[in-house]
Amino acid sequence: MTNLCHPERSEGSAFVIADFTSSYISQIHSQSRCLVPRHDKVLILYFCSFIVTIIIAYQNMMNSPFVSVVIPCLNEQEIIADTYHRVKNALGGGWNNGYEIIFIDDGSTDATFFILQNFAKEDASIKILHFSRNFGHQAAVTAGLAECKGDIAFIIDADLQDSPEFFPEMYKLYQEKKCNVVNGVRQKREGENFFKKLTAKIFYRLLNNLSDVELRVDSGDFRLIDRKVIDAFNSFKEKNKYIRGLISWMGFKQESFYYTRAARLKGKTKYPLGKMLKLAFIAVFYFSKKPLKLSLTLGLISIIIGLVLTVWVFIQQLLGMPLIRGWASTVIIIIFFGGVQLVTIGVAGEYIGNILDEVKNRPEYIVDEKINF
After folding, report:
1. Helix H segments across 251-326?
2. What is the extent of the structural domain holding 90?
3. Are residues 313 and 200 in the same domain?
4. What global pTM score does this model have?
5. CA 129, CA 147: separation in Å to the nearest integer?
6. Whether residue 165 sits in one domain with residue 47
């Protein structure tokens, strides 16, 4: 892979020094034909060229960031070796300042951790966080960001549906736009059934309407973030995080990288319907207060309906109109108001439960073992 950093020609840079040295070499060559022996002149030219090469290489190294790749994984023994090799190939030799690949084993019960250990023995750039049990995808990403040392970090899942081969393009966009975040936005989803695509589409747009902050539609956790965003994220103390929402909430300058999400090649999805619903509840009830306002609105509407019915009955009595007697209308009204009350209590209960989780102040995750840190 070619060098990804292209330092600008600015005063004081290696290019200015190189230009000056080149001019100086030309002067030596043109003005010292009679004064300097030929073999000494050649030595001077070689020495100056060597110095310029060293200066440019140092300048490139200083401009190249140290890169972290954060990869949460759970029971991915079928594909984890492919993930390792493809991420390594994607990083290639273009990152002159080095990189680290952090795998967070979220309590795998298969051979995932064993395979990662073998890679870590041979490759010092591989770092592993092994959880004491399964704490969830968002906790795993949080742990990786807390431990990473990079100037920039890529977040990518181990299933390879988001291709690590996009790293150079995302970094190029990051450089060109001089932004803090590059969000991977899915233009197309391969290998997903109609139900998954429909629910994802509804979820992102519903959450965007509920949120006070505009969220990136069809954007998952695949992204590039710089050190400023990493440090800001690590300052958050809340336990149950909806990371893609928090990244949007933080602000900074953000750009979108549009791509086609590939189908899963090996293994099974680790996000069944139950976990998807749990993430949706966290996103809605941790990230928005609009459900509380909605409950209040439903309560007010119920009160208005009750007052209208009361006035209607009162007017009927004044006009001597016969009242409709029967259980149907009574039952309907009871069910309606009862449903509103239960929904309101349920929404309030979700928020109270979230408060309880925060007040208990338990750690978001527990690391059983660290390797190569």
Report:
1. 273-287, 290-318
2. 65-287
3. no
4. 0.66
5. 9
6. no
